[in-house]
Amino acid sequence: MIRVVVADDHEVVRGGFAGLLATQPDIEVVGTAADGAAAVRVCASSSPDVVLMDVRMPGMDGIEATRLLTATAAHPRVLILTTFDLDEYVYDAIRAGASGFLLKDVRAESLFDAVRVIAAGEALLAPTVTRRLIGEFARQHRPSSTRPVALSALTPRETQVLRLVAEGLSNPEIAARLVVTEETVKTHVSRMLTKLALRDRTQAVVAAYETGLVVPRVSGRADGE
């Protein structure tokens, strides 16, 4: 079972997401919260795998709550809920350790898939959202001078896999590109994340941009549209 907490200050949104998720046999809603502080408390007592987190909430906002939750030993994966006009806040959420992003007008099936993807940590979520956000994030932040030291711990193949992950490729797509098995790709991704002390692929994409391993395009839409 995938344990989920839903945090949103709007009761209708909070209840709607919780109700939809509760219909799935492999998903259990273990708590809801109306603000960031309540989300932290609920997560401490319920140990969720995934937290659906709104950005703007009274008191402690979703960004600070994300920062606190991802710093805990349990470090649940946080899925940021956005209306897409909150881009500047979402960039801060990336820094705070968010694993992915979801539009609030998402369809039910996409919501279910998103939670499963985030729980598995196997692929970037909603490429049309995540790639644009990360691409813009990368343009606003210069490469770090310390991260390249960590990259030196990667093998050439792991570095290659990191580049492909940063391009938004899934494990099957990377396997096809490198002509290896999907299981081999999973092993490379797992080792790469461990060596760089990263939680998931979204963080890996950010790291690839921050180190300068991948350079964002100067012009054009980052989501390919």
UniProtKB/TrEMBL annotation:
GO BP annotation list: phosphorelay signal transduction system; regulation of DNA-templated transcription
GO MF term list: DNA binding
A Pfam family matched in the record: GerE
Response regulatory domain boundaries: 3-119
InterPro entries documented for this protein: CheY-like_superfamily, NreC/VraR/RcsB-like_REC, Sig_transdc_resp-reg_C-effctor, Sig_transdc_resp-reg_receiver, Tscrpt_reg_LuxR_C, WalR-like
Alphabetic keyword roster: DNA-binding, Phosphoprotein, Transcription, Transcription regulation
Residue list for modification 4-aspartylphosphate: D54
Ranges for domain HTH luxR-type: 147-212
Protein name per Swiss-Prot or TrEMBL: Two component transcriptional regulator, LuxR family
